[in-house]
């Protein structure tokens, strides 16, 4: 994960607590297993979020801008989906095994990172039917929102985030933003359809659109939960209203999601996305980005408090990086959002490109306040937005099989570790063997090196667990995957 963002967030956290900051840590800094993930696509050196999400959620690298589909599908090529052999993304894999599945995001629920869990599309921009080009409609391609009612989407136990506009018809006003209407042109109200689908199948289903309706949901009486808290993306944490008509924090959503899914004895899979870190970086507003990371950290802590860590694999990673740097010779404890002075002050944080470009000679920042939520840090190259960054990102893991994150991995390796750890992969041999007490007794101290990346990817798995608790855990393993958009 953009190491610059993680380091800066860690320092900012400490400085908010009145310390110098460098000596502290984020919750996932302390996870026992840390590795790196290579984020390039089949056709791009620097990725977008759709292709990377496809890698870690579906197990294959994909083309830029595509999601839930394999490498034969180029962006915008609706017809290619029909001829491409299907890939199986993680929610479908977990559902087949009877596990609960869900996701929580601060972006629209139809956005690039969560969408590969339930949708297949040649273009991430096809979030609603209003966004589908005529050619794609005629070719039979279905928009992402409609796929929430599809075979995998309709079985997701928890769907929470923003983005009502792609689920509501253009005849219906938004419940919070009455001057806006839904965008669907086909007349469908997918929220109503989602509720009806669960009622038909005799499940207890709940829908929330603000803090008050969120708070009124009792997890023990809920099999399925849909939360759509904004017309588009959810608010930045710094702008979030805590009132009844506001919206829940990421940590609150994670807490409730786990409470709903913990009822499943076979375990669950939850994807959590701190999506607005990315948006803040694109705008070159570093303070917003760092505080979105801290909001994500609270969500990680909330999850850790609610699960048994001996039977829960928690993976924290990023889909890609942003070009944020910590560049100066600042002294210990220098404000991370402040300035460093050589002959003239400049911000310690800066971006390689973006709207914060200021022409030379270097502007004099004396008496300029740089630690506000809207201050745009300097950029070396002028561009409309800060771009993504192609450097490797971190993988932080704890729980059963977390030791398999140990090197510089391809991004799709994350999917294979998750499916291997939870005995969902094609071979599952290690799970059968581990259920045999004789095998288990003789292999209780297997080392991590006996399972290597190559054998995992080709399904020739021949080794077992690394710790005693795994024997118990394999039957009900829980996976929580946190994605920081850094
Ligand atoms: Zn982005």
From TrEMBL:
- PROSITE patterns tied to this protein: ALKALINE_PHOSPHATASE, TYROSINASE_2
> Which compartment or compartments is the protein found in?
Cell membrane; Extracellular vesicle membrane
Its catalytic activity? a phosphate monoester + H2O = an alcohol + phosphate; ATP + H2O = ADP + phosphate + H(+); pyridoxal 5'-phosphate + H2O = pyridoxal + phosphate; ADP + H2O = AMP + phosphate + H(+)
What UniProt keywords are attached to this protein's entry?
Answer: Biomineralization, Calcium, Cell membrane, Disulfide bond, Glycoprotein, Hydrolase, Lipoprotein, Magnesium, Membrane, Metal-binding, Phosphoprotein, Signal, Zinc
The organism's place on the tree of life at top rank: Eukaryota
The entry's active site is 49 (phosphoserine intermediate)
Which E.C. number(s) belong to this protein? 3.1.3.1
Query: Do you know which Pfam families this protein is assigned to?
Result: Alk_phosphatase
* Alphabetized SUPFAM superfamilies for the sequence: Alkaline phosphatase-like (SSF53649)
Cofactors named for this entry: Ca(2+); Zn(2+); Mg(2+)
Q: Which GO terms describe its cellular component?
A: plasma membrane
Gene Ontology BP term (one): biomineral tissue development
Asked whether the UniProt record includes Ribosomal protein among its keywords, one would answer: no
Q: What is this protein called?
A: Alkaline phosphatase
Q: Which organism is it from?
A: Capitella teleta (Polychaete worm)
């Amino acid at each position: 994960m953009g190491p610059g963002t993680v380091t800066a967030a860690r320092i900012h956290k400490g400085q908010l607590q009145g310390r110098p900051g460098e000596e502290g840590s984020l919750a996932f800094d302390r996870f026992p297993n840390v590795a790196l993930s290579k984020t390039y696509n089949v056709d791009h050196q620097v990725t977008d979020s759709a292709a990377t999400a496809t890698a870690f959620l579906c197990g294959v690298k994909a083309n830029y801008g595509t999601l839930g589909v394999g490498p034969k599908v180029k962006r915008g090529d609706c017809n290619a989906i029909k001829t491409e052999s299907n890939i199986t993304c993680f929610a479908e894999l977990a559902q087949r095994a009877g596990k609960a599945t869900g996701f929580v995001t601060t972006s629209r629920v139809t956005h690039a990172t969560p969408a590969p869990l339930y949708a297949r599309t040649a273009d991430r921009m096809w979030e609603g039917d209003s966004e589908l080009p005529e050619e794609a409609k005629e070719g039979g391609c279905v928009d992402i929102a409609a796929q929430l009612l599809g075979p995998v989407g309709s079985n997701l136990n928890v769907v929470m985030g923003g983005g009502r506009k792609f689920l509501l018809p253009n005849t219906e006003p938004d419940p919070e933003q009455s001057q806006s209407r839904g965008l669907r042109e086909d007349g469908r109200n997918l929220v109503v359809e989602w509720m009806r689908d669960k009622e038909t199948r005799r499940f207890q289903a709940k829908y929330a659109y603000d803090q008050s309706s969120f708070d009124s949901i009792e997890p023990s009486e809920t099999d399925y939960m849909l939360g759509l808290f904004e017309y588009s993306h959810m608010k930045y944490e710094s702008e979030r209203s805590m009132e009844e008509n506001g919206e829940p924090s990421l940590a609150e959503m994670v807490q409730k999601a786990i409470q709903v899914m913990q009822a499943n004895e076979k375990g669950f899979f939850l994807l959590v996305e701190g999506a607005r870190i990315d948006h803040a970086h694109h705008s070159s507003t570093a303070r917003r980005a760092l505080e979105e990371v801290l909001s994500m950290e609270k969500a990680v802590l909330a999850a850790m408090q609610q699960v048994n860590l001996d039977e829960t694999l928690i993976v924290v990673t990023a889909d890609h990086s942003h070009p944020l740097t910590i560049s100066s010779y600042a002294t210990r404890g220098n404000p991370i959002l402040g300035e460093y002075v050589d002959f003239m002050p400049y911000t310690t944080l800066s971006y390689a490109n973006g709207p914060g470009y200021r022409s030379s000679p270097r502007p004099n920042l004396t008496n300029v306040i740089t630690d506000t939520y809207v201050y745009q840090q300097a950029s070396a190259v002028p561009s409309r937005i800060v771009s993504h960054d192609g450097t490797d990102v971190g993988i932080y893991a704890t729980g059963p099989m977390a030791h398999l994150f140990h090197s510089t991995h391809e991004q799709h390796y994350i999917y294979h570790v998750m499916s291997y750890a939870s005995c969902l992969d094609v071979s599952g041999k290690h799970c059968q063997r581990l259920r045999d007490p004789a095998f288990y007794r003789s292999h209780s101290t297997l080392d991590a090196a006996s399972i290597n990346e190559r054998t995992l990817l080709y399904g020739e798995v021949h080794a077992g667990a690394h710790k005693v608790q795994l024997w118990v855990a394999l039957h009900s393993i829980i996976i929580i995957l946190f994605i920081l958009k850094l």
